[in-house]
Amino acid sequence: MEYNGCMARAATTSDAFNAIAEPQRREILDLLRGGDRPVLDLVGELRIAQPSVSKHLKVLREVRLVQVRAAGRQRIYGLDARGLRPIHEWVGGFEQYWNESFDSLNAYVQALKGGDTR
Amino acid sequence: MTNTRHATARDREIVISRTIDGPRELVFAAFTEVRHLSRWWGPDGFTTTTRAFAFREGGVWDFVLHAPDGADYPSWITWREITPPERIALTHGESAQDPDAFESILTFADHGGTTEITMRTVFPTAALRQRAVEEYHAIEGGRQTLDGLAAYIAEQRRLS
What we know:
Low-confidence stretches of chain A: 1-12
Largest sheet of chain B: 7 strands, antiparallel
Largest interface: A-B, 47 and 50 residues
Strand content of chain B: 35-45%
Structural class of chain A: mainly alpha
Strand order of the largest sheet of chain B: 1-7-6-5-4-3-2
Shape of chain B: globular
Largest sheet of chain A: 3 strands, antiparallel
CATH class of the largest domain in chain B: Alpha Beta
Strand order of the largest sheet of chain A: 1-3-2
Distance between the termini of chain A: 37 Å
Shape of chain A: elongated
Number of helices of chain B: 4
Mean pLDDT of chain A: 78
Order of helices and strands of chain B: EHHEEEEEEHH
Radius of gyration of chain B: 18 Å
Number of strands of chain A: 3
Distance between the termini of chain B: 41 Å
Strand content of chain A: 5-15%
Low-confidence stretches of chain B: 1-7, 136-146
Oligomer: heterodimer
């Protein structure tokens, strides 16, 4: 959506928005919400081939939605909060723009009622 | 919430309603001056810089919307109809030349001490509106995931 430029964004796979547009990647994020997991665990839950899971994890890692650590011979994946912020700021597009504006308006009207911005 | 729609325009419009806790004159006033608008306009974390402002029918609000990530988005609004304190019709785009600019009608319903704002936005074509809706649904799943993630992260912060 290119509403008001607010929705304009880079159309590359290195952007968190594209990363979460893919349902399986969202499923991975959902699984990781319950705690860190090794790759094989994710493969078992998602019932998709390991190369696909690895590809998704690579994309998620590049946009900092997940992080990885080694534990013995295993690679353990977990959520990474750093990538989330831009998404929270943008998500919802048109409706978010207005719902958040109206939230602010409501707060501002309370201040006006109190007389502290007159 | 009133989401009454005209059937003929349904495929081109989005309706958003919100009840504001304040009398109608006050809520309406918050739309009429830059010193008010700059205090609330835009999504969370966004700010505005006004280049020109004239709140009258045919007048223009030319401003830049600043995103929290540092990106700037030119914005342009012209008021087509102003009926205090009941109704504002405006056209909203990136500039006066924006072919994708769209029209919104804001109505302010007086409910005693509260005011219900209904914003009915009509996109120039069904295709433009549809594009907006498709993008919206494409990220809807992401939004649900992220709401959960946000809660999770807040929880982690609380525990650490």
